[in-house]
Amino acid sequence: MNAMELLPKKLLSRPSAQAVVLIAYALVTAASVHLLTKSVTAFLLLLASLLLLYYTSFSNRTKWAAGAALIFLVIPLATSGGPAYQSYMEVATQSGIYIAMALGLNIVVGFAGLLDLGFVAFFAIGAYTYGIFSTAQANHFIPGDLFPLSGSSFWLFIVIGGFMAALFGVLLGLPVLRVKGDYLAIVTLGFGEIIRIIFNNLEKPVNITNGAMGISSIAPPTAGGYAFTHPNQFYFIVMGLLVLIIFAVGRFEHSRLGRSWKAVRENEIAAQAMGIPLIRTKLTAFAIGASFSGMMGVVFAAKQTFIDPSSFTLLESTTILVMVVLGGMGSVPGVILGAALVTILNLQVLTEVTNWLNQLTLQGVLQVPSALSPSKMQRFIFGAILILMAVFRPNGLIASRNRRVDPPHLTAPAPKAVVSSAVSSGTIRGTKEGGMLR
Amino acid sequence: MEVILQTLPQVLIDGLALGAIYAVVALGYTMVYGILELINFAHGEVFMTGAFVGTTVLLVMESTGTTAGLPGWAAYLLILVTAMLFTGVLGVGIERVAYRPLRKAPKLISLISAIGVSFVLQDLVRFIAELTTGNYIVSGTTLFDKSLTVPASSAVSWLSDASLKTNTLVIIGVAIVLMIGLDLFVNRTKWGVAMRAVAQDRETAALMSINVNKVIVLTFFIGSALGGATGVLFAQQYGTIDPFIGFILGLKAFTAAVLGGIGNIRGAMFGGLAIGVLEMFASANLGLLTSGSFGAEYKDVFTFLILIFVLILKPEGLFGKALKEKV
Fold first, then answer.
1. Residue B323 falls within a domain, yes or no?
2. Which stretch of DSSP H or E encloses residue B138?
3. Residues with Cβ within 8 Å of residue B164, at least 6 apart in sequence
4. Cα gap A150→A136, rounded to integer Å
5. Do A117 and B301 touch (CB under 8 A)?
6. Which chain B residues are closer than 8 Å to A117 by Cβ?
7. Whole-number Å distance between alpha carbons of B175 and B268
8. CA–CA separation, B187 vs A308, rounded Å?
9. Residue A411, CB half-sphere, CA atoms under 13 Å: how many?
10. CA B257 to CA B267: how far, in whole Å?
11. Chain B residues with CB inside 8 Å of A175's CB?
12. Has residue B327 been placed in a domain?
């Protein structure tokens, strides 16, 4: 390699240079989003600065701070003002909701290795929990005309929704988790369908869910007289929750529990032999994964102000699975990337391409039959992604890595005399290279 | 109670027709599972493709006037065989593209690939149907649509008469022929022996000079052809088909396979019939039994509950052998 090629590489490995590039990139894309008022491309490029941030070699604390600055300041500021402000914020909010759900499913599928094909059921449970109690719907089965609850109860319901979803996760898990691998997939698939059918028909004997009509005029959240109704306001709720969830997932992953999940995934029998309580470990995975989904369900219900069973179909469950598989099962940054990509593909790219093709058809340049319109081809695209990822890249876009072990950190607590004598006599060196530390 | 007894003949007839369909589809699941220990999620979609191929061939023959000179049974046989060949080849293709590269991969990965195949097939069929007819819901013509009456009331006074489409008889007949044929094939022929050997222990079978890949391909061909044939029977019985019929039906057929003990061919046949009759019974009587609170719309829930109970209480099924996992 000659010097010309080496120079940028060397430069880019320095954090200061990375900072300059990142800031310049964020500024340029932010400015272009601001100036080119309706450009989806510019918006996507701005979002990519978060990905760029992930690949820098800053310390974790710096990354979190920079990420927070990007999410809470740069992105809202850059997009505000233009006519597409609300639609950008809508996309970002939806992405946030799906990222949280994908992170939940990632705990179940990625960490604990339990394939759950009915994951959207937990989302539905969260959404219906808030929907039923924040409208007059609950009066049908609770006497006393206490409802609807006001929008200020939303904040409490985020917790309640998460709790309800976790409860159902445990209720489903208790009988089902004795079943292995592929059976589990089928049973959870059935569970997702059962929940949907029940929500679709539970307007009699007691009207709980209002059946296929759905629940409308759900109260928007309020805080001290301030009502959240627009996507740009929900953006902050979702991103705030998301930051908490990502933080929680990071803590869980490297905790004792997280390591037990991975042990169960790798080999159930070996894990059990090492003293890991199988059912309890799996149940916590189900419950924690479900609770993220339930919380976002509450947010979703409040944002849409209308829910009906058609939002919670198998296609949704599969979409979330595609996000996890595409990003990389068990890899938190991967899943975030996968969820963002799939949501943006769904909401922006497919609709844009469809509009463009429609225009071409109108102008008579090209005849595209409506059967082939890309916005209808989600199943095909998602199916193809699943097959291709499974066959060619089963680890996903960003493969999960075990946390790197810091050798001095490991050797430090060992008794000093033994280590030094062992090192001096040369016996420990071999194990250090080949064995524990790798 | 009397009403339930009165409708029993009709429930039994409809249940057996549906059950025969479930049984033959369940055979496809059980054969593939027996050999690869993989749930072929795409099998429901293979069934659906068969329904579309059969209907298409019939519609094309009608528009070209080929059926005019042909007796009904010959046309029926023709669409059955075409659909079986097509779906058989489709099944082999699916195996080659989506399952074979993953044979050594973890279970989870091949399951994901299988779900992918099922989605791709649904959409492919949807846009081919939509492209050619403008609508993805297709109605075909029924070849045997005469209605018979079963005079149950004259035999036993408290039963009421049941009506019966001639096609129902055809379904049950074809299903029995297919099932007996498969049973003979697996138990009496050389290839059947090879198949059972591979199912028992793939590596040892390979050492006994059995071509494992060929056996797997054959399994997929036969299983998928059976699925495709059922698709034709289904389309003939119910008239209207759409690309999404395979999914729920596949799930129920899988329930049937599990009920009978997965990997067990005779068990799958029994399970299919049982699930069909139970489902029809539930759909006719759930409303009566719960005095109107829960109606026929819960019949799918009912089937899934059966699946969950079987998996919890007797995961090896009614006729399967319980296996201990080896370390």
1. no
2. strand B138-139
3. B13, B147, B148, B149, B150
4. 11
5. no
6. 115
7. 13
8. 51
9. 16
10. 7
11. 308, 312
12. no
Mutation target vs A (from B123, B254, B291, B294; most A CBs, 10 A cutoff): B123
Q: Both tokens of residue A221?
A: 């959240």
Q: Closest approach of chain A CAs to the CA of B93, in angstroms? A: 14
CATH number at residue B118: 1.10.3470
The parent domain of residue B188 ranges over 1-146+164-313
Structure tokens at A157: 């319901």
Contact yes or no for B108 and A321 at CB 8 A: no
Which of B30, B95, B115, B242 to probe the A interface (max A CBs under 10 A)?
Answer: B115
Site from B111, B138, B262 to mutate, A interface, most A CB atoms within 10 angstroms:
B111
| Tokens, residue A392 | 């060619």
Q: How far is A125 from chain B (nearest CA, A)?
A: 17
B200 to A33, B193, B205, B217, B224: CA distances (angstroms): 62, 11, 8, 17, 21
The residue of chain A nearest to residue B94, with distances taken between CA atoms, is: A387
CB B16 within 8 A of CB B167: no
**Structural tokens at position B11:** 């429930």
Cβ neighbours of A372 in B, within 8 Å: 127, 131
- The count of domains in chain B is 1
**How confident is chain A (438 residues) per 10-residue block, as mean pLDDT?**
62 80 86 78 83 84 87 83 81 92 94 91 93 84 77 89 94 80 82 88 80 85 83 90 92 92 91 91 94 94 90 89 91 92 86 83 76 79 91 88 71 53 44 37
* List of chain A residues whose C-beta atoms are within 8 Å of the C-beta of residue B258: 183, 186
Identity of the residue numbered B22:
Y
**Residues B93-150: pLDDT tens digits?**
999 999 999 988 888 888 889 989 999 999 999 888 888 887 888 887 777 777 777 7
Q: Which amino acid is at A12?
A: L
Does the residue B321 lie in any domain?
no
Q: In this complex, which of B116, B248, B304 lies closest to A384 when CB atoms are compared?
A: B116
Which residues are within 8 A (CB) of B101 and not within 5 positions of it... i.e. 6 or more apart? Answer: A391
Do the domain assignments include residue B153?
no
- Centre a 10 Å sphere on the Cβ of residue B189 and count the other Cβ atoms it contains: 11
Q: Which chain B residue lies closest to A317 (C-alpha atoms)? A: B115
Q: Are the C-beta atoms of residues A371 and B127 closer than 8 Å to each other? A: yes
Closest CA–CA distance from residue B106 to any residue of chain A (Å): 10
Which amino acid is present at A200? N
Contact criterion met (CB below 8 Å) for B161 and B152:
yes
Nearest to A386 among B116, B130, B315 (CB): B116
Question: How far is CA A387 from its chain centroid?
Answer: 21
At residue A20, φ and ψ (nearest 5 deg) are -60, -45
